Fold:
Amino acid sequence: MTDAVLASDATTIGSADAAWWRQAAVYQIYPRSFADANGDGLGDIRGVVDKADYLAELGIDAVWLSPFYPSELADGGYDVADYRDVDPRLGTLSDFDDMIAALHGRGIRVIVDIVPNHSSNRHALFQAALAAGKGSPERDRYIFRDGLGENGERPPADWQSVFGGPAWEPVGDGQWYFHHFATEQPDFNWDNPDVHAEFLETLRFWSDRGVDGFRIDVAHALAKDLPEVLPSQAELDAMDTTTGRHPLFDRDEVHEIYREWRRVFDEYDPPRIAVAEAWVATPERRARYATAEGLGQAFNFDLLEADFDAAQFRHIVTVNLAQSAATGSSSTWVLSNHDVVRHATRYGLAPRDGSTAKQGSAWIIAGAPADQVDLARGGRRALAASLFLLGLPGSAYLYQGEELGLHEVGDIAPEDRQDPAFFRGADPERDGLGRDGCRVPLPWERGGSSYGFGAAGAHLPQPAWFARYTVEEEAADPASSLSVYRHALALRRALQTAETLEWIETGRDDVLRFARPNGWQVVTNFGEEPFPLEPGATVVLGALEGGAVAGESTVWLRD
Ligand code: GLC
Structure:
């Protein structure tokens, strides 16, 4: 075993380790559903402080916090009313400072979410745009157009928003504004220098407060080029998104924005890091967001979109490692986040039912009735896939609750749902049940109100079966998902090595085996037949059954 350990093994955050992010394990916190310290039903910043020891014990290198800013919650906080404050329901800036201190003191870095494509309609800049009227400099910060028809009574185009429903909203004076997402999320006009200034100030504000990096929401949509005569939705749909010249997505000039941001990141020591959420057409297009002059890293959702299938996994890993080696970035891996059905549940669905292929929108995967999900199989496969992922070179992004093996909550009543994607989606078959099922507050304790989430219950109802997935229950069981994650994350640190792997042929289509340069090996059996290992293999994680890797499981070996 190598003596080399990740710099992030240190218990304090130093300036020397500028490359800390390259192979970090990053844990996503969806703050309103993590832990509620003040007992108002919503998770908060002090809840994160209270759970700092839990996070340290889990063994992650960083947390990424989804938005905690003031918001009307039209889209779970991704409708930001003020980029430089904390939602009063979630705490104060001073609580935020305490959280940074608590996490940094335990060697955990902090990444915050920046939402630059759109603000909330309650944001002061949008309110000013409405008040100032047509043709004003204030309106130019957003995307306003005159409506069609004599008095502008018809929308400028028939475009549909990502959540369903029209993407243009009238403001009562013949003008309409464009919103990719919910009506409450007007898109910024990134041709306007004020918008640039607003975000440079925001990046400095949080960097000055000690945050280590940023996750950039919808990073591929900021730059737009809307012609005088707008194309129809059908024409938009037919346009190629790989050329860098689509009017709305992945335009080449978006990278000018990130070059500007990079100069700010590099003002700090160590430089602030960033990871792009860019749902683009190919790994090649994605790599453009991950350059050293740009954001540095980009989410790779390929595994998240794949089936539990050896050939798909191998292909994805090979392509993405080559891509990141070519650009000097490091790859990212992710199986779950706050936008998709949890992977334990996806993997329990019949083949392809959980895939995005039949979905119009890549990031809303149709939920399925609970009786169509094989929960045990999904749980087994999820753990196998997570341990495969944690052995890969590059950074691993984990979503709160996956360490517990938590399933999607599929049966939330319509009146309890919050996600605009559910309400705006015309057809649940096509558009899915929305994303509330992966955002249900975490179960911490066996009993009590809301399984220990907080004193006032949970803002999305928790099902009775959450009792079997509590931190309390699992921490006491060495065979639980939580215990295996803890063990894996500790070993991952100890074994971490150069960012490459070599495939070892297994003679089976459904078994993958790879070795890292220091002799750390990962074997994942995607099939049901046990895979016999050669005698004498040193297993460091997982267990063999009769000398074989059991079906739908992963083991780690070392020389
Ligand atoms: C991103 C977020 C998602 C949000 C959307 C609009 O895709 O991950 O949760 O709804 O952007 O901000």
Q: What stands out?
A: The pocket of alpha-D-glucopyranose is lined by residues 75, 78, 115, 181, 217-218, 277, 338-339, 363 (CB under 6 Å). The two ends are 7 Å apart (CA to CA).
